[in-house]
């Protein structure tokens, strides 16, 4: 058995710092374990021969039998000594509930570093410190001091992993209230060793876990998280995550809470989405989505929703909520509407369907009409408002019988019922495979989440390209434009035909060879923002005009940036029929190479209309990135403009992602802005590019490097 298996499935547990008082941190775990746990319990206490009716030991080393798991509830300064005893005893898994470690500042960080070093040397795995504990509901091993753990939910297929003890306690209470079955429950605190990603990967292969619910403040290894999410997706297990720290204040609070940097929220959002985890905005939403994934009989093939109601007003409300959640409420095919009109002559049948009260005269109409809708080919999910029919002693047995018959004939139909049921009635419908909600708007986001998982589980991850890393002999951190563009061109991102010149005569000759109006730009590794200091001239046609422009550029640079190194002036064709987009790479400390696409040009930092993914990306993922942009409609042609070359843009995104992975060890960032997207069939062109390398002892100011490498992330 692995140490992680012993952590989560212990056959015996020692409680170090055990208390005879069941209300104290060292006493609650023993009190809870005595209730349902069938394994051996070994209280460790220096002075008491017995703890809460169980034989106690003054030392862990006095216990003769093997122990799977140790639970430490001691003051922080003596935790390391207890950990050493665990290693001597041969225990390979430990939960440290004690606080006073890295979450408390430098002194606590030093104590945490000590226990990490001891654990690594001794080969013991740790959950914590500063954690509320771990529970396995199936075997009753509640090694925790959590409030509310006396009243447990039933055993089930939902597993919970959380960085917050408060979240863990709340979810435990909510699961009990809603009678939702629980399997594993893991609160890991500072995650000095075993972390969120490792627990997630374990649960992704756990046969008793169907759905995983997580609370996350921050991680240290983005690749580890991505791989764990990938495994859950491969095994068809929905992962629902509440990720906090989206605001500056929230990120600071998260860092101080568990001593883990929250990181940039947009990147977390992108990675969770990319690897198939649903990010819930609230605890309530997370609970509803997890519930829906547990009880839904299948995943939908599409996002079309049919709204079926006995109240026209609530039908409108539900359609509005569905639209806000990203679901479609399309009109039913005319043939289907005709069939419904024949069955329900006084109804509105377009979608939403308003049956009116005529159902009360013949309840068989419910099953018949639902059957017509669900088999129409235009309905992936069905939301039914039936409040009033479920709590009447006369009507409830009739509607239940009808819905039972419908379910028997349509075992995989995804149907959300809006009712006001008693707990017993709710349970009856859930056993039939119905999702039950009490508010008309409530089902929509969970159903949209179900659609998200349906798409994610059938998606194909990007394959890593085998392209070779580029070779660069320069010692500069910031590569000049011509060098950067040559590198990205070799990687598959098109660049224009252009020439680097070092005098006015060569500039005039280059312009003549290119033909048509040209642009001229200074080329220097020290000048990323050329236009700000007079380093750019546009729309030049006359040869003499080109020569004079060359002179102006050189004079401007000598005056405004006298210490800048000048590699020449770049002469390029003016391209006027393209849409300005931006592509970028940031080699993030947590997630590695992150890819960005957005509307480009000089307003990129103001508009902030961008989408991120972890590199590499597939073509489908690149298309999803574009679909997320608020301004993506311009790609399809607006105000008489032709459609843009979306395929060419997608190819450039994929190529840059492959380049990012191949060169992750040497690049810090790439900024391509603008990338002109030409009309359909004409491709894309990188008009400007900057590559910032990881520091190779080059002389460059920190402020300058930050200006270049992070401008697209502001």
UniProtKB/TrEMBL annotation:
Gene3D superfamilies with a match to the protein in the record: ATP-grasp fold, A domain, ATP-grasp fold, B domain, NAD(P)-binding Rossmann-like Domain, Succinyl-CoA synthetase domains
GO molecular function, one term: metal ion binding
SUPFAM superfamilies, per the entry: Glutathione synthetase ATP-binding domain-like, NAD(P)-binding Rossmann-fold domains, Succinyl-CoA synthetase domains
Protein's UniProt keywords contain Nucleotide-binding: yes
Name of the molecule in the record: CoA-binding protein
Residue ranges annotated for the ATP-grasp domain, each copy included: 485-521
SMART domains: CoA_binding
Family to which the UniProt record says this protein belongs: In the N-terminal section; belongs to the acetate CoA ligase alpha subunit family.
Entry keyword Kinase: no
Pfam families xref list: ATP-grasp_5, CoA_binding_2, Succ_CoA_lig
GO biological process: tricarboxylic acid cycle
Alphabetical UniProt keywords: ATP-binding, Nucleotide-binding, Tricarboxylic acid cycle
């Amino acid at each position: 058995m692995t140490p992680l298996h012993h952590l989560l499935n212990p056959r015996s547990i020692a409680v170090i710092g055990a208390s005879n008082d069941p209300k104290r941190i060292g006493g609650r775990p023993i009190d809870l374990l005595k209730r349902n746990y069938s394994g051996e319990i070994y209280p460790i206490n220096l002075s008491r021969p017995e703890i809460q009716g169980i034989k106690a030991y003054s030392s862990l080393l006095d216990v003769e039998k093997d122990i799977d798991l140790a639970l430490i509830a001691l003051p922080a300064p003596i935790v390391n000594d207890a950990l050493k005893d665990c290693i001597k005893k041969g225990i390979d898994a430990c939960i440290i509930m004690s606080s006073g470690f890295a979450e408390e500042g430098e002194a606590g960080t030093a104590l945490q570093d000590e226990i990490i070093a001891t654990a690594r040397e001794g080969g013991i795995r740790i959950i914590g410190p500063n954690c509320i504990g771990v529970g396995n509901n199936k075997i009753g091993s509640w090694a925790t001091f959590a409030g509310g753990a006396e009243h447990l939910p039933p055993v089930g297929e939902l597993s919970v992993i959380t960085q917050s003890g408060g979240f863990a306690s709340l979810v435990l209470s909510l699961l009990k209230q809603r009678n939702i079955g629980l399997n594993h429950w893991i609160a890991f605190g500072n995650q000095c060793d075993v972390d969120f990603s490792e627990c997630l990967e374990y649960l992704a292969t756990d046969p008793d876990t169907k759905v995983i619910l997580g609370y996350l403040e921050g991680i240290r290894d983005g690749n580890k998280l991505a791989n764990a999410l990938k495994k859950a997706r491969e095994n068809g297990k929905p992962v629902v995550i509440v990720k906090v720290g989206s605001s500056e204040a929230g990120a600071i609070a998260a860092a101080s809470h568990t001593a883990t940097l929250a990181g940039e929220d947009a990147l977390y959002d992108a990675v969770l989405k990319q690897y198939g985890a649903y990010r819930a905005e609230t605890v309530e939403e997370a609970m509803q989505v997890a519930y829906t994934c547990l009880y839904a009989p299948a995943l939908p093939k599409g996002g079309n929703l049919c709204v079926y109601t006995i109240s026209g007003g609530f039908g409108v409300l539900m359609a509005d909520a569905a639209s806000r959640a990203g679901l479609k409420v399309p009109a039913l095919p005319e043939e289907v509407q005709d069939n419904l009109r024949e069955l329900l002559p006084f109804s509105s049948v377009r979608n939403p369907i308003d049956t009116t009260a005529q159902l009360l005269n013949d309840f068989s109409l419910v099953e018949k009409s639902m059957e017509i809708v669900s088999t129409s080919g235009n309905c992936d999910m069905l939301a039914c408002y039936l409040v009033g029919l479920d709590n009447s002693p006369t009507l409830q047995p009739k509607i239940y019988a009808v819905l039972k018959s419908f379910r028997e004939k349509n075992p995989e139909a995804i149907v959300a019922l809006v009712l006001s049921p008693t707990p017993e009635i709710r349970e009856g419908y859930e056993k039939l495979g119905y999702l039950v909600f009490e508010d008309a708007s409530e089902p929509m986001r969970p159903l949209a989440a179900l659609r998200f998982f349906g798409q994610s589980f059938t998606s194909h991850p990007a394959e890593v390209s085998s392209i070779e890393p580029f070779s660069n002999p320069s010692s500069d951190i910031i590569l000049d434009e011509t060098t950067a563009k040559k590198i990205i061109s070799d990687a598959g991102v098109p660049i224009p035909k252009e020439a680097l010149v070092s005098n006015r005569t060569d500039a005039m000759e280059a312009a003549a060879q290119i033909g048509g109006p040209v642009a001229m730009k200074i080329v220097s590794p020290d000048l990323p923002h050329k236009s700000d200091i007079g380093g750019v001239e546009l729309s030049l046609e006359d040869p003499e005009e080109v020569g004079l422009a060359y002179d102006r550029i050189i004079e401007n640079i000598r005056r405004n940036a006298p210490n800048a190194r000048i590699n020449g002036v770049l002469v390029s064709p003016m391209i006027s029929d393209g849409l300005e987009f931006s592509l970028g790479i940031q080699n993030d400390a947590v997630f590695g190479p992150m890819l960005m696409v957005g509307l480009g040009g000089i307003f990129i930092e103001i508009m902030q209309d961008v989408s991120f993914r972890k590199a590499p990306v597939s073509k489908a993922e690149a298309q999803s990135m574009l679909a997320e942009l608020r301004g993506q409609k311009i790609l399809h042609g607006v105000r008489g403009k032709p459609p843009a070359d979306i395929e060419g843009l997608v190819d450039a995104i994929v190529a840059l992602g492959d380049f990012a992975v191949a060169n992750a060890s040497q690049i810090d960032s790439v900024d391509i802005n603008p990338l002109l997207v030409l009309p359909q069939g004409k491709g894309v062109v990188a008009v400007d590019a900057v590559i910032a390398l990881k520091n190779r002892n080059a002389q460059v100011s920190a402020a300058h490097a930050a200006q270049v490498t992070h401008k697209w992330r502001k």
